[in-house]
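Last lecture ended with a question: if I hand you only a sequence, what can you say about the shape of the protein? Today we answer it with a concrete record. The protein is DNA invertase Pin-like site-specific DNA recombinase. Below, first the input exactly as provided, then the predicted structure, then a couple of comments.
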Amino acid sequence: MMRVKKTDTSKDRVAVIWCRVSTKEQFKNNCSIDVQKKECREYATQHNIQVIGEYEGKGESAKTTNGRQFQEMLKVVTSNKKVNTILVRTYDRFSRTGGEGIVVKEMLRKRGVDLIAVAQPVEKNTQGEFLEDLYLILSKFDNSQRRDKCLAGIKGCMERGDWCCRVPMGFSRKKVDKRHIITVNETGKILREAFLWKANENITSDEIMRRLNRRGVFIKKSQLSEMFRNKFYCGMIRHWSLGEDWIRGNQEILIEPEIFDKVNRKMNEGHLAGYEKQESNNFPLKGHVFCPDCHRPFTAYTVKKKNRDYYKCNTKGCCHNRAADVMHQKYINLLSDYRIPKCLFPILQRVFTKVFWENNQREKEEIKSLNIRLTDCEVKAKAVRLRYGLGEIDKEIYDDTMNVLEEQKDEIEQNLELYKNKLSNLDRYTTKVLKMSCKLGDLWQKGNARVCQKLQNLVFPQGIEWDDKNDDYRTFSENEVFRLFRKISTTYKYESKKNTPLSSEVSALVENNGNSFLW
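The predicted structure:
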């Protein structure tokens, strides 16, 4: 158990001053930093405290304790053994994180460093420590209330049709009284032409970009596609606070809904046509199978007289050439080697889940930390009830503290539930992978080029070689999960012939290879 270094109040105090404002605008436009420094200096003078440094959090939020300037101040405090005090104006200038702030304060206390809020004096005893924690918790509570009010304001604006967030390219926004007025600017008038070009002329996106560039509007291809699909341009708005539905907005309309719909129909037709062309590809192994001699990927061609497809190596001097239908059938046979017998599904699913959690230390640490926080929250609640029962705190403080602790407890329990759901999702995931392994060959044979390529890259992420001498494939790299599947499948076939129980061997095989899983 770590011994807490008690600050000797009989000795001279040596302190640093910490001041903070949340935004750079606050730092530029008001005197908050100067006021905080002034009050801390006056307190230090009155109490004979030597100040050896002043640190400022300019535009640094207290919603986290990971701020760069805050961490720099802590580094100085913890590295200088003479420093035994941090002066702040109020506790919310130190932290608005609640629990995290309390942890940092406790860490400092164990190093013999006191936190003093000059405008919120408390006694240095058990009751004072409780009040310090309470101030930090209430700072987070106040922060949460502000956030809720802000979000409620945003939702109210959106429900009225007033967009109050960042506007897309082509619009300008200004606030008049409490209303957000959004109008089409000069760039927007040029972008309107882009919608008309797309709707009425058979031109490509590259040509539209060239025309826009000539008129002084520079836009990327991805931005152009996103703009054509954004209903904001035809007078609609959608925000996460309102759900997934689009509603009528009050902004100026850049393009009529009829033109917008026509543009999107054209884009969808072009997308589907391209997808069908991809599906008609007869050479899914092109670029995936490599020559065993020069290690370059095979290309493909069709002999029209025979109406037959072939794969070949294009390197001069290489004579590797094989019919596509033969290579396709060989590939299907190869994928069949990864088939897992259905009778092994239950044990494999249990072992995979066990191995996953054993090899994901972060999840275990998070769950452990959450359980510790939950216990700590319950202990604090019990202490508050005891103190209220003894008459040490009044009803108002009791209610406020219990409300905050209940919120913390609910949040912790929700996070623990998320990890339970993750485990449940893992069960579904392993089931899906195991079922897929039983029909890799069928999926590849029946899938279009896109599906085939996804499967190929999943099982053999670095490709595969064709061995002319043996007229078959040679694997040099495979996904570790599927490599394990192949081992299990081979072992099962061998042991089945001897009528030997396999469950324990499968468990050992999976657990021994667990560290190399590529989930």
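Comments.
1. The domain at 14-151 is CATH 3.40.50.1390 (Rossmann fold).
2. The two ends are 39 Å apart (CA to CA).
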